[in-house]
Amino acid sequence: MKFKILMNHTNLLKPIILNPLHIFHWHGMFQHGTNWYDGVPGQTQCPIPNDVSLVYNFSTTDQHGTYWYHSHFFAQYVDGLRGSLVVHDPDDPYLNQYDFEYLVVLSDWHHNTTGVLLPLQDAPGYSGLRPIPDSPLISGLGRYNCTAAPPGSKCKSNQPLAVYNVKKNKKYRFRIINSSADGVFVFSIDQHKLKVIEADGIYLKPTIIKKLPVAVGQRYSVIVDANQPVGNYFIRGTLDKRCTPINNATINFNSAIDWNGLGILHYEGAINKPNSKEFDDDFTPCRDLDKKHLNPIKPITKYDGHVTDFVNITITFGRDKNQRLKALINNSSFVPQMNDPTVNKITRDIDAKDLPKEQNSVIFNHNGGIAEIYVKNNNGADHPFHMHGHVFAIMYVGEKGEVHDKSKYNKRNPVVRDTLTIPGNGFVVIRFITDNPGVWAFHCHIEWHVELGMVLGIIELQDTLKKETIPEDVVALCLEHDLQKRTTRKMLNSIVINEIRSYD
Ligand SMILES: [Cu+2]
User: Fold this and answer.
1) Which is an annotated GO molecular function term of this record (predicted)?
2) Domain of 381: which CATH number?
3) How close is the Cα of 304 to the center of ligand 1, in Å?
4) For the segment 186-208, what is each residue's pLDDT rounded down to a tens digit?
5) What is the dihedral of CA 369, 373, 374, 379, to 10 degrees?
6) Is 354 inside a domain boundary?
7) FRET partner for 393 with CA separation of 20 to 30 A, picked from 130, 271, 290, 313?
8) How far away, in angstroms, is 22 Cα from ligand 1 center?
9) Pick from 231, 78, 81, 234: nearest CA to 143
10) 384 CA → ligand 1 middle, Å
């Protein structure tokens, strides 16, 4: 199968001198038979030291669509170690419905690096919420109110915006990725409705919307018809403030951020300054796009059957003995063992039930079975959960106060994707097919919550997994380096970004 990485070159930052350890996750890729290339420290591989290279050698098998890749090591991706990944489909059912395609990579930019931000969140007694960003970015470009910049700053308030060029009466596929640390983005183009055709690599029955809410880690494709009068129109990548809780102990709570990120849809020949008007909201704030817009192109029925494994998990927050904030899954905060990932342990014949408790393991042993996970959110915040190695079917999303009623499950034509929002104090029920031997993270994609330990380790088909052989160069990453020593918090302060406003 043809494999192609499409880089959105406007999203590359340069130059970046990073912590000398890296690890890359290929968000949305199933990694059938190549669990060790999933790129999760402590679960699937040891980090790659400086001057060492690793080829991630995996097949996309039958997957096509919009994905992305990012570091999964501490919060490196928030500092810019991320990009888009598109697998083109020669049999794309919508290929004749658009003329060109574009990538839109949305992100929430922090002026401080995560080397500064994470230790603040990790400080004993920290009583704030998630760090507040400084600018929303559309494909790496955004603006900042320079009156708030420090003295001597080279900040310019009229930085160029991302411009997407179109020709009148042509149709465009926009692939939209929310690669943020945290924020829910709302994407729209003034005077142009969006025909939604893909969510997280799953083709959809097309429906028309005005505004697209995108949680962290989610991807969509929409078709835009350039059928309006020739002109310049605003593209809006708004960070939805309603979904970002703030108190005055929150890191950067007095951020000068303008939550309304802008780009421009430029028709060939247009000379006007854009002054287009934003659509009214046609979605529920802080929730995923409504399921009526997410019907798979053909109903996916394989999740309607006998559930072979059932797991019940609860999300909360707590504090450790040093009063540090921790995210808890079933009362346990995930701690990766950087120098001995779980998959290495399994292949050494360690039984999954004997893994250290703080690896938050859940075990699925039925080959080809249907696993069901009930996630209860005992916390007021919404959490966008992403599963590695799989897509899952959403049986139900329950709001705060709703009673869990199995008769309401959507078994016959469920929404299928790899990232969903779990409502604050609500619950979700998802199902997936246990057919992919591996150690797969299931975690909140708010990067600040990952760092607080909101991660589960799915141990799937360990009897098959333990017979597999991890490639020598991957194992060597653990053997050759004293990683545990090198991955201290102190190291993170070595992240330096020299010029945050220099783009390729
Ligand atoms: Cu979260």
Assistant:
1) copper ion binding
2) 2.60.40.420
3) 29
4) 999 999 999 999 999 999 999 99
5) 180
6) yes
7) 130
8) 23
9) 234
10) 6
453 CA → ligand 1 middle, Å: 10
What is the 286 CA–ligand 1 centroid distance (Å)? 13
Q: What is the tens place of the pLDDT at every residue in 376-397? A: 999 999 999 999 999 999 999 9
User: Domain residues for 333?
Assistant: 307-471
CA–centroid distance, 12 to ligand 1, in Å, is 26
Name residue, tokens 């055709």: 197
| Cα 208 to Cα 76: distance, rounded to the nearest angstrom | 36
Cα(406)–Cα(307) distance, integer angstroms:
13
Structure confidence at residue 19 (pLDDT): 44
For 127, the 3-state DSSP assignment is: coil
Query: Is 329 domain-assigned?
Result: yes
* Alpha-carbon distance values, 314 to 140, 182, 217 (Å): 36, 21, 21
Cα–Cα nearest to 386, from 343, 441, 436 = 441
Report the separation in Å between the CA atom of 259 and the middle of ligand 1, taken as the mean of its atom positions: 20
ipTM: 0.83
150 part of a folded domain: no
Q: DSSP per residue over 49-102, as a string?
A: ETT---------TT--EEEEEEE-STTGGGGT-EEEEEE--TT-TTGGG-SEEE
Query: Is residue 78 one of the residues assigned to a domain?
Result: no
Contacts with 406 (C-beta within 8 Å, 6 or more apart), sequence order = none
Please state, in angstroms and rounded to a whole number, the distance separating the CA atoms of residues 23 and 474.
11
CA–centroid distance, 502 to ligand 1, in Å, is 31
Looking at the 3D structure of the chain, how many domains does it have? 1
Q: From ligand 1's centre to the CA of 113, what distance in Å?
A: 20
Residue 501: how many CB atoms within 10 A of its CB? 13
Identify the three-state secondary structure at position 491: helix
Cα 331 to averaged position of ligand 1 atoms, centre (Å): 15
Query: How many C-beta atoms lie closer than 10 Å to residue 356's C-beta?
Result: 12
Between the CA of 31 and the centroid of ligand 1 the distance, in Å, is 24
Contact 6, 303 (CB under 8 A): no
How far away, in angstroms, is 387 Cα from ligand 1 center? 13
Distance 360 CA to ligand 1 centre (A): 16
CA triplet 55, 360, 215: central angle to 5 degrees?
70
Ligand 1 centroid from CA 411, angstroms: 26
CA 154 – ligand 1 centroid, Å:
35
122 Cα–ligand 1 center, Å: 15
Q: How far apart are the first and last CA of the chain?
A: 30
